[in-house]
Amino acid sequence: MCHSHDGVSFPQKTREGMLLAGIIATYGLSNDADVQAMLDKVKHRGPDGTIGFKSGKLVIGETFLSLNPEKNNCCAGGDQKQNYAALDGRIFNRKQFTDENNNFETDGEIALRLYQEQGPDFLQELDGMFAMVLAVEGGKPFAARDPLGVKPLYYGYKNGTMYFASEVKALVGYADDIKFFPPGHYFTPESGFKRYIDFENIKWKEHELDEALGKIRNLMEESVLRQIPRQTVPASLLSGGIDSSIIAAITARHVDNLKTFCVGMEGAKDLEAARKVADFIGSQHTQYTYDKKDIQEILPEVIYYMESFDPSLIRSSVANYFAYKLVGDNARVVFSGEGGDELFGGYMYLKDLEGEERLHQELIGFFDGLHNVGLQRVDRMSMAHSKECRMPFLGMNLLQYATTLPPKWKIYGSEKIEKWVLRKAFEGWIPDDVLWRIKQEFSQGSGTVDVMDEIAQEQITDSEFDREKNAINPPLRNKEELMYYRIFRQYFDDDSAVATVGRWITT
Fold first, then answer.
1. Residue 450 CA neighbour count, 13 Å, CB half
2. Do both 190 and 226 map to the same domain?
3. Residue 87 in contact with residue 73, Cβ under 8 Å?
4. Which of 53, 215, 236, 501 has the fewest Cβ atoms within 10 angstroms?
5. What confidence tens digit (pLDDT) does each residue in 16-44 have?
6. The domain spanning residue 324 has which CATH number?
7. Dist CA 369 CA 149 (whole Å)
8. How far is CA 33 from the centre of its chain?
9. Is the bond preceding residue 474 a cis peptide, omega within 30 degrees?
10. Residue 203 within a domain
């Protein structure tokens, strides 16, 4: 790792086609060996190199991911005033900040310049997924995380030093009391943590239906186009569900010979539906089937990278793990349909809620909790295979519009059709029997659920579960969760690491 020590030298700027994908930072007393060891823990996020920066008490280390591995150059970003930007992720509306006088090579440079001009207020202008640590004002940290927490960031303290890292595993053994950096917040040593965006006050209103359907289509397409990388061709996960099918259908209209990927167990419903969509949109489709033995072999690795033991998350992470592995060398950037359920009402229990306002508040409430459940799964399983996953449903313009739609259009009519308005907007884009297919959790559609329970029943007796279920509070809920928890503790022997785990209400 190369360093800039106290103003002596600067690393090169990030070259186009490089993504900073893993961040380590310390503010206080630390040494280069510790920073390098922590960086090694997140090397999978950016296997194409590491680089560092040091100013005063602040040390920043980064890993980077090349969108084109054949053009592999050292990357970082800074200026000649000891200011520096480490940004994991992407700013999708970068064009609005560039002109003939400001032709930025990296998103980190954009963030640094905007901070210098506006202070923390610049965060409200960004449409993107990001976790950032900036070195400003002679070596002070300014850290921030995107509104939903699409990109991860954690922190902890030890002996007066503050530590930041993209993943929990990098902090274990170095920092005490590990916590997630709250989404939609920034941090400075002077102000502490400050929220810069709040979804709670978003109100829904009446819309004219035909106009709304057109607006949804336009904003969806805009979000996909913003997220298509200039330097490489993306692939798309295609589970056969509504959300991933819509994303793939839009992308296929703008990317020649789009490659799509689906995984599942033999006979899984997802495989058939995904193949049908791929034929309809004309993508180059690849699928893979896995079995019980395959699951058992990769389960410890899934839990290590996922940093969770929640049953629902681990089940769907298994399928995601195989999916990103299947992508292989075909792409470094992968599109996913994540976010459609939260924006448009895709969960079955939502049908039981009484009244539009109650449904609206439940949907808005998702935004605060996604970061350590579904979004964590997407980030960790993609980065385990050095892939950057992009989620067009979470584009800020689309999100802000979709949250104003009448809840009655999301859970619709006497039949309570979930995501009705989204389905209606994309009639004709994918096969009708897929478009109006009842939602299934990824692990259900891929056929994983029953097998995971079967493995747990084989490994854990009733007496073992009764003896160990109260190892944490709230207690472990079933044998499957205990099985995952045991593996988790092999890697994360730290109670504060347990506290970072998001757990769904249902298993």
1. 7
2. no
3. no
4. 215
5. 566 788 999 999 987 788 899 999 999 99
6. 3.40.50.620
7. 9
8. 29
9. yes
10. no
pLDDT digits (tens, 9 = 90+) for 416-453: 999 999 999 999 999 999 999 876 555 455 568 889 99
Task: Looking at the structure, tell me whether residues 70 and 36 fall in a common domain.
Answer: yes
Please tell me whether residues 55 and 157 are part of one structural domain.
yes
Residue 409: closest CA among 460, 465, 356: 356
Domain count of the chain? 2
Let me know whether 320 and 382 are in one domain.
Answer: yes
Residue 272 lies in a domain: yes
Claim to verify: residue 225 and residue 357 sit in the same structural domain = yes
Please check whether residues 249 and 367 belong to one and the same domain: yes
User: Residues 6 or more apart from 12 whose CB is under 8 A from it?
Assistant: 73, 74, 75, 76
Q: Which two tokens mark 191?
A: 């102000």
Query: Distance between CA 51 and CA 44 in Å, rounded?
Result: 15
The residue count of the chain comes to: 507
Tell me: pLDDT of 67 over 80. no
In sequence order, what E strands does 105-184 have? 128-136, 140-145, 154-158, 161-165, 176-180
Q: 169 is in which domain, residue-wise?
A: 18-195
- Per DSSP, the three-state class of 502 is coil
In the chain, what is the straight-line distance between the N-terminal and C-terminal CA atoms, in Å?
43
Could you tell me what percentage of the chain is helix, strand and coil, using 3-state DSSP and rounding each to the nearest 5?
A: 45, 20, 35
